[in-house]
Design goal:
about 300 residues, alpha/beta, 434 Repressor (Amino-terminal Domain), Endonuclease, Chain A, six-stranded mixed sheet, about 10% strand
Amino acid sequence: MQGWPSARTVNRYRDWTSSTVQHDWRVCLSVESEHADLSNPAVSPLAHFGAEVRLERERLGISREDLGRAAHCGYSLVAKIEAGKRVPVLEFAEACDRMFPHSNGRFARLWPLALRYAFPPWFRKYVELEREATTIRTFESQVIPGLLQTEEYARELLRTGRPDSLDDLVTARMTRQSLWECDTSPRAWFVLDEQALRRNVGTAEVMGCQLERLLKAGQRPRTVIQVILQSIGAHPGLAGPFTILSFGQGPDVLYVDSFSEGRTVLDAGEVDAAAHAYDLLRSYALSPEASADVIGARLEELIS
């Protein structure tokens, strides 16, 4: 994908936070206004994508039904995408490139920009940094981390908030996992509280498939998964989930989840404290092999 920032961007963000001009770093991390008119193609890449689809489709005399059949979706979804009201999946963009002669992959190239609008404004810059990271260290206490979720698990989890655009949220979350498909996929370390394995999200089948995904992910050479048993009791992660991103050059970035919105942290002291906490969490956790046994045992409980 094109358009992701270089690690030097992280340095510029840190410069902003330490500037004598007292900017709110959360504003700096979100270029777009939450109150922008997203139906305006000049403002929203999502609306621009939809407008380009409509113009090209009408120019060629292709009906929405025909485009929908090629993209394996319905008339209504095509109309919503053209109006900038729904985020397309990659397969839709690829179908447009097949249906529209001489597009030369234009819609697949536009798609990453449109996808950004499936994320809340405060989360967009973090997603870009996540794709730039060379190492990802995540702790999660209650649920399976988004980068490891199956689509069915993610849908059940996101459904609980009764969002207006559940399909868009699921699309966005699943697309984040495309970083595992890159030749230079990041090294990833996931430490999970056992509670995340035992909290049933969806049916037993949904949860079983999710645990199978965990076991497969743990077999990847660049991914490590460790579990902290409930019997351990108190540990440094009880304050909540967090992720540390590291880059080939430049400072680390900390992301901390909260109820209403996450927080991306560049302050060196807070990032260092999180790194220390993460080292301690790994010491509380089982080895990757023993962790796989715990995940496997939990899976056996579900299917027995």
